[in-house]
Specification:
This protein has helices at about 30-60, 65-80, 95-100, 105, 115-145, 150-165, 165-175, 180-195, 200-210, 215-230, 235-255, 265, 280-290, 295-300, 305-315, 325-340, 350, 355-370, 375-405, 415-425, 485-500; strands at about 85, 90-95, 435-440, 450-455, 465, 470-475, 505-510, 510-515, 525. It is of the alpha/beta class. It has 2 domains: about 30-405, no CATH class; about 415-525. The strands form 3 sheets. A 5-stranded mixed β-sheet has the order 4-3-6-8-7, with helices on both faces. A two-stranded antiparallel ribbon has the order 1-2. The chain has a two-stranded antiparallel ribbon with strand order 5-9. Helix 1 (about 30-60) runs parallel beside helix 6 (about 150-165). The longest helix is centred in the first third of the chain and has 33 residues, at about 30-60. It is globular.
Length: about 525
Amino acid sequence: MWNDRPVVDVEAPPAEGATDLALPAAGGSDRVARWTLRGGLTLLGVQAVFLAGLSVVVFRRFTLAIDFGIFSQAWTRIGTGHLNPESTVNRFPYIKSHFELLMWPLALLHPIVHSSIVLLFVQDAALVVAEMVVLVWVAALLRRAAVGTAWTVAVTIGVVLLLLVNPLVYGTATEDFHFEPIATCFIVLAAYDLWSGRTTRLWVWVVLCLACGDIGGLYVLGLGLSGVVAAQGDRSKALVLLGVGIAWVGLISVLGANAGSGISTGYAYLANQHTLPGGSRGLMMLVGGVVGHPDRAWDAVFPRWGTLFRYLESGGVVGMFTPWGFGVPLVALGTASLQQDGIFLSLPFQNVVVVPFVTFGSAWFVVWIVAHWRSWIGTTVAALVGVGALTAGGVAAAQELPTAFTINATAGIVPADRAAALAKVLARTPGDAEVIASVPTIGRFGQRQSLYPLIDEAVGTTVPIPIRGSAVMVVMDSPDAPQLLPPSIEQALVSELVRKGARVVVSESGVTAVLWNPPSGTTALRLP
């Protein structure tokens, strides 16, 4: 009977070292719950295989853009012994982009697997492991709350469904490689251990999350916020997490190692500036502007509430308003929505961390109602909340999944004939050649010392492209994305290079590639 359920505190963590990874073996209801959990984990394993297959398609079709080029170049250079590589795409040392220290351990994979596709597989694994931890966390919550077999099975199935159809997961998997999914995995593991009272292992995940760069510091800060609100006793660990997150972000700013975050321009309006100085001075100006004039932040966020809601929809919405569901998503969505042009808010990988926390929060809310409201009214309310969460997730999936599979960093999966032409270019590119390529498909050319994009900002003579090698491959793609050069500029560039002695090595399916051996003393290529 529903009225026979004990009242428990679903917020309080179990004792240090308690085991939550396996359901008890005794009893038929326990066996049902255990098999439901195993079934959910199996389905998530199938999802992992699907994501890996999707990554193979993306890789083979050259559907990888400028971000993959940046990471692929750094991974390859570090893996071949160049421990402080320059990001030629960004034109500054890679370490100064986001301070992503974890790239160095990842580069240990290079001698084993030379292909940069391994980065996509690591990202896929991180996405699915984060989901699996959420499912195990929900199972532990259900076991502690003792809500009965029916509710245990229903909530577990609901969480699995929300995770399997979440468009942010698939959108992230198709859009290059980034450290946000890796940091998401580690912060979910840290959150589970904070809830479970596992102090030692918690700090392992926290350190690994911080190694993902400035975004890792923000996630740790967000977990600290949740821990302060959710803790049922000693809040010291949560307060330490809060301080560590703030200190890490501050340290990276002081070191000037967050150039890739666009703080100096994207957030300068909050301090009533066009640009902010680097380091601690710029950070202090930014904080002072937000504190002194919060209306600027409000004016930026309010028009974007619809986009924010769509991210919450995918996890069931209500989870955002629970102790464990709000902290990390608040920090992630807050920083993304405050960016001036809103570009960070439109990118799935920037906000994929919302998925595990809002999903767990939605399950937590249903369990809290069932455990504390022991009547048919409580049962009805819990059922309505659960159905509402599933409906929200279903609506998000119906609206966003087609986009997640068809539009990504390159504006769409590259057609097979064009991918075949790009593969010919890659095969005919000397190993030591510099590559200058169109932005949407530059990623596959990233495993080399010198890589530069053909972008709109480079038109004219203001941003010449450095020439560093004795051979240069210039790769121009068909104009199907706004980041590409206009066809007239491409044609003029080909003509100019041919006049200088270059030869066209591929010209088919909208792809033109020119191999050029610049004269001695040539230091730059200026676009026509």
